[in-house]
Amino acid sequence: MTLSVRLAHDFPGFALDVAFDAPPGVTVLFGRSGSGKTTVANAVAGLLRPRAGRVAVNGAVLLDTEAGRFLPPHRRRVGYVFQQDRLFPHLSVARNLKYGRLFARGTPEDFGHVVALLGIGDLLRRRTADLSGGERQRVAIGRALLSAPQLLLMDEPLAALDDPRKAEILPYLERLRDETRVPLIYVSHSVPEVARLATTVVMLDAGRVQRAGPAAEILSDIGAIPTLGVADAGAVLTGRVARQHDDGLTEIAVSGGVLYLPMVDAPPGAQIRIRIEARDVILSRARPEGLSALNILPATVAAVREGEGPGVMVQLRAGQDLLLARITRRSARALGIGEGVDCFGIVKTVAVTRQNVGLIGD
């Protein structure tokens, strides 16, 4: 899948002017509220007719204002999952799902495969009013998939859910990313969601693209901290499960060494994605001894960014991966932290929570 988006539109007090291209996978539109994320999604879906622009999916042109082309929403084959599920309360889950097939303009996903993919087989006879928020969103996703979309849009589908329901649905979104061929545009301002799901991140601010590229690269970009926010800064590493230990720890092989995490429910060889928050990384110039922390990665300082307060953000290269560490300016000076300096990044095993670990399908 290739996605190409060029949009320009004017609102009172706000001007949208974005352009990006994305490879196959999940393209996340990320930014603060009011940055233009949903506006871009609506323009791609055909719910907004922009002043100027071009949108193409796999070479199929949905919008080209110069050529006078504007496909109406019902002809774009775009499945849209909103924050609120918008299911029909008087219909069963099965009939809600089958409703999506009424609008299929291509070959829809197999009904049984979608049901299994989203884990909703035991819900088919139930009315949607009796479902939890996470269950309702899974049904809404299934209905969209069964409409045979060439592109799936999700506008902050987890925003209305509490943390347990988010934890429930994220693995299904990962399976959707890895097991279907339908490309996905996902709108979010949640860094943990982006770290778990994104293939490509398009970072928006005030209607403009600030950065765009692979998720691991963008999230660990020290220059992206003002948009991400210092509190949410962190890097994404990929690794493979090497071994499950009897004491409840999972050994993960990453390019810079080995990480030990609380039990990850995955077999040896499984590929995973790990978000390590900058505030959970400690630096040492010498390899430490006698620490309770198990995760010690040799690294080289790639960049340093000082904030307005007492904090400093340090970008590290550990093997092929990037890490971020948030330390004080005083500590940085005491350790002589600067670009090119060799050091060790230390991460407490229990600091990496379940919400920051996700599976990647082969």
Short description:
The protein is an alpha+beta fold and 362 residues long. It has nine helices and 21 strands. Helix 5 links the parallel strand 8 and strand 9 (184-188).
Structure description:
The chain is of the alpha+beta class. It folds into 2 domains: 3-219, Rossmann fold (3-Layer(aba) Sandwich); 234-360, OB fold (Dihydrolipoamide Acetyltransferase, E2P) (Beta Barrel). Helix content is 22%, strand content 37%. The protein has helices at residues 37-45, 93-101, 111-118, 133-145, 163-179, 191-197, 215-219, 225-228, 329-335; strands at 3-11, 14-22, 26-30, 52-57, 60-64, 69-70, 78-81, 151-155, 184-188, 200-205, 208-214, 234-244, 249-254, 257-262, 271-277, 281-284, 295-306, 311-318, 321-328, 342-347, 357-360. A hairpin with a 4-residue loop joins strand 5 and strand 6 (69-70). Helix 2 runs parallel beside helix 4 (133-145) and helix 4 packs parallel to helix 5 (163-179). The longest helix has 17 residues, at 163-179. The protein is globular.
